[in-house]
Amino acid sequence: MNPGFELRSVAKRYDDVLALAGVSFSIESGTRLAIIGPSGGGKSTALRLLAGLEAPTSGEILLDGRVISKPDCIVVPPRHRGITMVFQDLALWPNMTVLENVMLGLASLRLTGGETRRRAEQALSICKIEQLAARKPKDISGGQQQRVALARALAGQPRFLLLDEPFSSLDLVTKMALLQDIAQLVTERDISLVLVTHDLIEATRLCHFAVVLNRGVVEESGEFGKLMQEPRSQILKVFKTSLSAKEVPGNA
Questions:
Q1: pTM attached to this predicted model
Q2: Which of 53, 56, 178, 195 is deepest in the core (most CB within 10 A)?
C-alpha cells in the first residue's frame, strides 16, 4: 500500500450536532477517491478535517503514518500537508484579475515575484485559460471561473487536490468537459484527488474509489466498480437502478 491519509475513529461535533461519528478510512497516495452521500452526511466536514482547516473532536488523522491532527489540535497546518483545495463558492477575489487570483494562492510559499508569476501563468496555460489572465472574475463564464480556481490550486503543485462540490453550478456540457480535463491533469501530474460530491456522475467520471458517508458514518467504501456490483447504501442502489448494465462501473 502507498502511504497517504488515514482517518482513525474520527468524530467531529459542532455544539449538539455530531457531524462525524467515529469515521475510519484511508486515502492512498496516487488514488482518486470520491466522498459521496446525501446533504448533511458529513462529506464536507471530512474534507475540512483532511485539509487541516478544523481539528477532530476525537480520533486521529495521519499522513504517511504521522499524526497531523488529534483531538482539538491541528499538529500539521494546511500549508505543510501538500494539499490545495477548491471550494464550492470558488473564493475568487472580484477586484483582482484572473492572474492575480492565481498568484494570490501562492502567497504562503514565499516564492520570488518572478517565480510566483511564472507558476501562475503556467497553471493558467495548463487549464486552457491563459487568454483570460487580465480579466476580472465577473467578466468570465462560470466554467471559466471554475478553471481559474483549479489553476490557483494546481499552481501550488500539490500532492493532494481536494474538491468540495465545485461543479454544482455548471451546465452539463461544461461540467463534462471540465471533468475530463481534470482527470487528465491529475493523471499526468501524479496528483491524488479527493472529491466531495452528492453527484454520482461526477464521482464516476473522476474517481476510482469511493467512501459513502451518511449521517456521519461510513456506510460502505472501496473500489467503485466493486461497490456498484452489490451496493449496500441507498445512494448507490438508486444510482445503479438508473444505469444500464454497460454504464455500471466495472462492467465491460
A1: 0.87
A2: 195
What is the reported pLDDT for 252? 41
Please provide residue 239's backbone torsions phi and psi, each rounded to the nearest 5 degrees: -65, -40
Residue 80 CB contacts under 8 Å (≥ 6 apart), including other chains:
none
Q: What is the pLDDT of residues 204-245, one digit of tens each?
A: 889 999 999 999 999 999 999 899 989 999 999 988 888 654
How many CB atoms neighbour CB 12 within 10 A? 22
CATH for 1-82+161-166+191-252, options being 3.40.50.300, 3.30.470.30, 1.20.1050.40, 3.20.20.140: 3.40.50.300
Q: Render 77-138 in DSSP notation, one character per residue.
A: -GGGTTEEEE-TTTT--TTS-HHHHHHHTTGGG---HHHHHHHHHHHHHHTT-GGGTTS-GG
Single-letter residue type at 211:
V
The pLDDT of residue 131 is 96
Instruction: Say which residue, 68 or 247, is predicted with more confidence.
Output: 68
CA distance 200 to 204: 6
